[in-house]
Amino acid sequence: MDIFTLFLKTIVFRPYVFAFLAAFLFAAIMLIGWPRTWRFWLISWATAFVCEYSSTRTGIPFGWYHYNGSTVGQELYFSDVPFMDSISFSFLLYAAYCVALCLLLPIGQSPPSTRSIFKPLQLAVGTRTGWPVFLLSAFLFAFIDMVIDPVALRGDRWFLGKIYYYPDPGLHFGVPFANYVGWAVVGLISLALYFPLDRRLPALSLTQSITPQLLLGVGLYYGVLAFNLSVTFWIGESFMGMSGLLMHLPVMALLILRLIGPRADSTSR
């Protein structure tokens, strides 16, 4: 079967993955433009694929796990890695990056004519490619996988299917801690390659506030989170679902407080 046919079958077989991918492309183009978007996608996808290829053979950096090939012929694989799996890293990293930006970007002054409930964030290049955003993005990237991977491991109970397994299951609902370290490594490598390119590309033409565009990426992060939590509860894993929800509530609270919390009174004497 040729690659194009398998690609089309993958879209039909995994429509939710490609819906999230389309949302990522739209949100990223709106915020950082196409030249940065395709570089971000290519770097993060290639990094994820190399790391998955390595881990299934050497255990580095995710620890040992194996794809069982149960969907070969139904979806596209590169070597033994499903295409849909490695592309998922790209939109999840971008979504985590947007959440980190919302928490760390400087807040500007609202124009007098603007009555938005959201604070105006400024996409300063020094901040968006700085160490705090770099580290927080990688953390949030691994953090959302702490909801995704446990339910994905139970894919035989929903429409993902049983596509992989860990030879030595871990303590976190069967997922080894090394897996989350691997996710952080993918995020760190990808951003370490992307940030220098971002600094060298022509400056972005931005309005004073980029909060609305940034919220598209934040919505993607919490859309993926809601999807996976919904599946978790749907298959009857209530404790696992509540654990994932409670883990993410503090970050959600901080995000809401940063975006719509009390503002400094610029008219005070």
Layout: helices, strands, pairs:
Elements: H1 3-13, H2 15-58, E1 66-67, E2 77-78, E3 81-82, H3 83-104, H4 125-128, H5 131-152, E4 164-165, H6 177-200, H7 211-234, H8 238-260
Antiparallel strand pairs: 1-4, 2-3
Helix pairs in contact: 2-3, 2-6, 2-7, 3-5, 3-7, 5-6, 5-7, 5-8, 7-8
Average residue pLDDT:
93
- Kindly state the number of beta strands: 4
Question: Helix and strand string, N-terminal first?
Answer: HHEEEHHHEHHH
**What's the arrangement of strands in the largest beta sheet?**
1-4
How would you characterize this protein structure?
With 269 residues, the chain is mainly α. It is built from 8 helices and 4 strands; from the N terminus they run H-H-E-E-E-H-H-H-E-H-H-H. The chain has helices at residues 3-13, 15-58, 83-104, 125-128, 131-152, 177-200, 211-234, 238-260, and strands at 66-67, 77-78, 81-82, 164-165. Strand 2 and strand 3 form a beta hairpin. The longest helix is centred in the first third of the chain and has 44 residues, at 15-58. Mean pLDDT is 93; it is low at 265-269.
